[in-house]
Amino acid sequence: MTEKPIADHALRYPLSNELHARPFPEISAPCRAAYLAIKQPSAAAKRERSLDRAHLIALLDRFGAPHPAPGATHHSADLGRSYLKWEMHSEFVSYTLYADGVEDRPFDGKAFDMFPKDWLAAAPGVVISSVLVRMETADFAKQSMPALSKKLAKWFVAESMTASYVVDREAIVATDFRIDEAGHVRFAITSNKGVSQRRLGRIVQRLLETETYMNASLLGFPVARNVANEIDDMEAELTAIYDHLVADKSKDSATLEELLGLAGRIENLASRTAFRFGATAAYAKIVEQRIALLREERFEGRQLMSEFMMRRYEPAMRTVLSTKDRLQDLSTRTERAANLLRTRVDVENAEQNKQVMVRMDQRAGLQLRLQETVEGLSVVAISYYAISLLNYLLSPFAPLLGFEKYQLTATLVLPVLVLVWWLGKRVRSKLK
């Protein structure tokens, strides 16, 4: 759950031009094949790919086979009694060994012994897919199909066995998608007489890709189950927050903080699971495409692989996709609740600001009236000092003018008051 998300890399890579350049194997029945897909447990898309190449070269050196070209993502080599096909994918590497002939006992595991045990133990990762393939040929015009159906039924578990004609009835493919005691999934392919080696190779490769991508997609299922429990808890928290939104408006700020914390946890969870959920959806699409390319037809009343997938595989994929949708829906609802609560907090803050502005306006009016009162008093004070100064200045001349000192003072009061008031008014008007 710590893998970094990348858009549709898992789907885009298998459909790239590079993969189209990879040749299909040319297979002649009877033949057997052993297949391995190895993946690092975590962060496989960003793994050190040189380790995969070193592991391949270690196998090639045991048989004296040539090394792959630098930077190659696929390689084929003749190992003597077997033929190797190696491919590097976005999250895993695959090894397929083909050998002529089939075992006396079907699926006895000898084909898998072509992989050395100590070499397997040194693999840079874990095995996510291990497959045994048994390929035989028959003349469908002469072959008794009920007898072939009974033989196949002995090899596989009847409850989950699938058997169908594929590729315009050129071959019959049977499997039960179960892991045997040795840890392998088994496929039996009976090809019609005259089927080309290239067509048989395409059938084998599509079956192996179906099994591998099915296992790779199922890696998202346990992640989805674990995430579902966290989503349940987060949905309960979000419901409680919505209840607070409706019932109690006095704690909007605290509720907003709680909601933002929940949103952060949701986004963290979405980020941790984005890669795996995206890869699961992409791999599931590839599985669907590979089965469609086989063009199945019913064989002796047996269930088709597509029917098996519909009953056993698709429910797991729907669980993963449903969990992904639930997480996205939870993120959307949380964002919507945060926007609603943030809007309400903003409205409350605006109302408080309005009340503050009204009080500030009232205080400004009081200050203006106080200032006007002070200005009136200042006119009186200035006039008083002005009259006193003029009285000192003109009192020596009062007898010459025929005034007593008090008469001179009384004569100066009104003109000085008017003059001071007029000067103050002019100063205020210029300041405005």
Keywords:
432 residues, alpha+beta, Methane Monooxygenase Hydroxylase, Chain G, domain 1, 3 domains, 9 strands, 15% strand, rod-shaped, disordered N terminus
Can you summarize this structure?
The chain has 432 residues and is an alpha+beta fold.
Describe the fold and architecture.
There is one protein chain. With 432 residues, the protein is α+β, with helices and mostly antiparallel strands. It folds into three domains: 9-196, no CATH class; 221-349, Methane Monooxygenase Hydroxylase, Chain G, domain 1 (Up-down Bundle); 377-431, no CATH class. The chain is 59% helix and 15% strand. It has eleven helices and nine strands. It has helices at residues 9-12, 17-20, 49-63, 117-121, 145-155, 197-218, 220-247, 252-294, 305-394, 398-401, 405-431, and strands at residues 31-39, 74-78, 83-88, 92-100, 126-138, 162-166, 171-179, 185-192, 297-298. Strands 2-3-4-1-5-8-7-6-9 form a nine-stranded mixed beta sheet, with helices on both faces. β6 (162-166) and β7 (171-179) form a beta hairpin.
